[in-house]
Design goal:
Helix 8 runs antiparallel to helix 9. The chain starts with a helix and ends with a helix. The chain is mainly alpha-helical. The chain has 18 helices and no strands.
């Protein structure tokens, strides 16, 4: 008990937590190890102190219920152990969010450590990406095919854009709680500019869309910061025009992000597709599987197996590890019960957003407005629950860490009421 208490108050442990962001670049193992061990230690701490409120609030109860739904769905799936590998450890992320909230209440420098960690990581990643894009080799002078998609240190994974776009709202939130001076303003503006550039040159359609909607969400909902809004809007517009209308490389970006997407969806002679022909095949296969088990689905992580069943297959490429849309994946793997979790979250988000708009522009009631810190994090929630786009695997370790990461800060902000 004494050891755990001292650990949670130790600045080196706080610095270790902030390394989760850069370690994600290397893969899910190390950040997942830190999160899992921290979650277990926090559970022990809660049990010894008998302070169970530390892992319970009205928001986390909702996630615990979803967790139980996923586990139950795994238990009735055709391959129980395979499915449980994804659903059973899911609870560690909820516990970890509570741990982050608890630590932030101790008035330490965790926000500062995370801000510095993110800044350094983004600068290194983006510098390497710019080398690849403009010079054809990375900072270690390894050759890179400039006609391909930029990935920086993710190499073959091609998820640079996804990583940056999902962490962009978190970075803005972290920047909002730092002490402002010339160095801070310069670094923050520089990093945000790099994020804009690198998400675009990564040529990931979903990531570009995520960045745009989170950016404009903050532009519309933020209060004050008019000069900063104008500055970032000008930077965003300038980068967009330069990159997309560049004669050579701009054509690659335009073709992949705009033209190919439009043609794939709307110019198909037979039918309107769900995103692209390949994605359409995955999603319709998942929907057909959902009809067979509509209540609790086939079990988390099961799509890669059920897509091999011929009676479910639709289109030319029905199989993948996931159907590339969170809502459709939850329908096929956890049924209507699991799907309702994400759908309700979307409805709740829309309701709160409308309420905030009314408070800001009509009622002028600051008591029911969200703070800019909360709005930044909520924009991160928006790109996770937005239904009309392609996604990765909902139960993928890297992705789960990325979309749970802002929740610890959100839990803290609601405990503190205003930040």
């Amino acid at each position: 008990m004494i050891f755990i208490g001292k650990l949670f108050n130790n600045k080196y442990y706080h610095i270790l937590l902030s390394t989760i962001i850069p370690l994600l670049v290397l893969g899910p193992f190390l950040p997942d190890l830190i999160i899992s061990i921290s979650a277990v230690l926090f559970l022990i701490f809660v049990y010894i102190t008998k302070n169970f409120r530390l892992i319970l609030n009205k928001f986390s109860i909702y996630f615990y219920i979803f967790y139980l739904i996923c586990v139950f769905s795994s238990l009735i799936s055709s391959d129980i152990l395979f499915s449980l590998k994804s659903s059973l450890p899911y609870v560690r992320l909820i516990i970890f969010c509570h741990l982050v909230s608890y630590l932030l209440q101790k008035k330490n420098k965790i926000f500062e450590y995370f801000y510095i960690s993110c800044s350094i990581t983004f600068i290194i990643l983006c510098t390497n990406a710019l080398f690849e894009y403009f010079l054809g080799y990375n900072i270690f002078f390894q050759n890179f095919d400039v006609t391909g998609r930029i990935s920086s240190f993710f190499y073959e994974e091609k998820i640079l854009g996804s990583y940056l776009s999902r962490l962009f709202p978190v970075y803005i939130a972290l920047a909002l709680v730092q002490k402002r001076n010339f160095i801070f303003n310069f670094v923050s503006t520089f990093v945000v500019t790099l994020i804009f550039i690198c998400v675009f040159i990564a040529a990931e359609r979903a990531a570009t869309f995520f960045l745009i909607i989170s950016f404009f969400f903050m532009m519309v909902f933020f209060k004050d910061f008019k000069k900063i809004k104008i500055l970032f809007l000008l930077i965003f517009t300038f980068i967009f025009l330069i990159l997309f209308f560049n004669a050579d490389r701009g054509k690659i970006l335009r073709d992949r992000i705009i033209i190919n997407t439009f043609e794939g969806i709307f110019l198909n002679k037979e039918k309107v597709l769900l995103f692209t022909e390949e994605h359409d095949s995955h999603m319709r296969t998942a929907l057909k599987a959902f009809i067979d088990k509509p209540i609790l689905g086939h079990g988390p992580r099961s799509f890669r197996k059920i897509c091999q069943i011929k009676s479910y297959q639709v289109g030319k490429t029905p199989c993948n590890t996931h159907p590339h849309n969170f809502y459709i994946q939850l329908l096929s793997e956890t049924g209507l019960v699991g799907f309702s979790f994400l759908f309700y979250l979307l409805i709740f988000f829309c309701f709160k957003t409308v309420k905030h708009l009314l408070a800001k522009y009509f009622l002028r009631n600051s008591n029911i407005e969200y703070t800019n810190f909360q709005l930044s994090l909520l924009s991160g929630v928006l790109i996770t629950i937005f239904p009309f786009t392609t996604n990765g695997n909902f139960f993928n370790n890297n992705l789960m860490i990325l979309y749970f990461f802002p929740l610890g800060f959100l839990f803290y902000s609601y405990v503190k009421k205003r930040i």
